[in-house]
Amino acid sequence: MTWTASQVAQQVAQLPKVELHCHVTGTLRPATLAALAGKYGLQLPRPVDQLYTYRDFYDFLEVLRLVALVLREQDDFERVAYEAIEDAYKTSNVRHIEMSFNPQYFIPSGAGYAAQVAGLVAGIEAAERDFPVSALLLASFDREWDAASAEETMDLILSHRHERVVGIGLDGPERAGPPAKFEAVYRRATQAGLKKTAHVCEDNQTLAEAPPSHLDACLDLLRCDRLDHGYNLMASDAAIARARDSGVYFAVCGITSVAANRERRLDAIGRMAAAGLNTTLNTDDPAMFHTDMAHTYQHVLDGLGWGWQEARQFSLSGVEACWLDPQAKADLRRDFQAQIVELEAQPA
Ligand code: ADE
Ligand code: ZN
After folding, report:
1. For residues 162 and 171, what is the distance between their CA atoms, to the nearest angstrom?
2. Is residue 53 scored above 70 in pLDDT?
3. Using CA atoms, how far apart are residues 23 and 10, in angstroms rounded to an integer?
4. How far apart are CA 346 and CA 348, in angstroms?
5. C-alpha 119 to ligand 2 mean position (Å)
6. Which of 52, 54, 64, 288 to mutate to test the pocket of ligand 1 (most atoms within 8 A of CB)?
7. Could you tell me the residue ranges of all domains in the chain?
């Protein structure tokens, strides 16, 4: 391939992509956030452009939970899901997206679980009509809440079972909720045939707070099918070997909440790939991190000196790691391969 750097950037933007690690609350356009805050008479603590700048990881989590307070009615969830998919498709050619939502964030301000799902699904269905994209939902627990609250949320997930909600996740600060705390609730998910992921070994937590041993807990106790992040496990040769041998996919994110951590994040992503771990590339919280999938891909390629081959590999690994049913996954794989062949045929 003899494309120039700017041609590669254009091709990377057009590459079909799968987004597997994306929090609904992190996708709100600033204008949508302002409009919804206005609708409920909520005062934001600082202007939106400053709201999405964080002192540290914990400040970011506070803002994330604050933003969640503007989602109250079914229509709000519909709007936000639709806009998240529209943005992902239009900016980055995202063709399949798995979005996480935290039922626990919305229930206290009046949105019942069934209304949350109904709104998100309505937004997804409208977006699927307008754009060539598919979407699934993961219900996520904030690990800072206690295990009993996660159990109550699991009761709701199971009593309002919806085919779009295919799995569960675990987010928030790892130091406040090690994986073992959620073993029982994850066992119920396994029994119910739900897929499972969890944030683990996140690099904005210290090695003591988010140690490599959490990988074992996620695989053995939670029986996770996929994992989010994983960077801190690179501190342990045993964890690296386990991660590689397990074949588990890590949904890594190219941009992190605090700018000062970005170099370290890139370094970890490079080392995970070099060690032979299976990774997919994602945004985490696109609006809240001022990014999108195309920008995230380019950021990682530039930062690691990577090019088209690595971008192409991320595109296809997203397909392999996604939780579509086997037929839909095979169709998506074929579609991605065809799009890639077409992109590669474009003259330099
Ligand atoms: N919620 C949204 N993004 C998160 C992250 N990167 N880590 C933990 N919880 C989150
Ligand atoms: Zn996340």
Report:
1. 21
2. yes
3. 26
4. 7
5. 21
6. 64
7. 13-345
Give residue 199's identity as a one-letter amino acid code.
H
pLDDT of amino acid 144: 97
> In this predicted structure, what is the pLDDT of residue 346?
86
In CATH terms, the superfamily for domain 13-345 is Metal-dependent hydrolases (3.20.20.140)
Q: What pLDDT was estimated at residue 347?
A: 76
Which residues approach ligand 1 with their CB closer than 6 A? 23, 26, 64, 171-172, 199, 202, 284-285
In what order do the strands lie in the sheet containing 199-200?
Answer: 199-200, 227-229, 249-253, 278-282
Parallel/antiparallel/unpaired status of strands 134-142 and 249-253: unpaired
Kindly report the protein residue whose alpha carbon is nearest to atom 6 of ligand 1: 284
Span 17-36, pLDDT tens digits: 999 999 999 999 999 999 99
pLDDT surpassing 90 at residue 153: yes
Could you read off the pLDDT of 290-323 as tens digits, one per residue?
999 999 999 999 999 999 999 999 999 999 999 9
Please state whether 41 falls in left (phi above 0), alpha (psi between -120 and 50) or beta: left
Rg (CA), the chain: 19
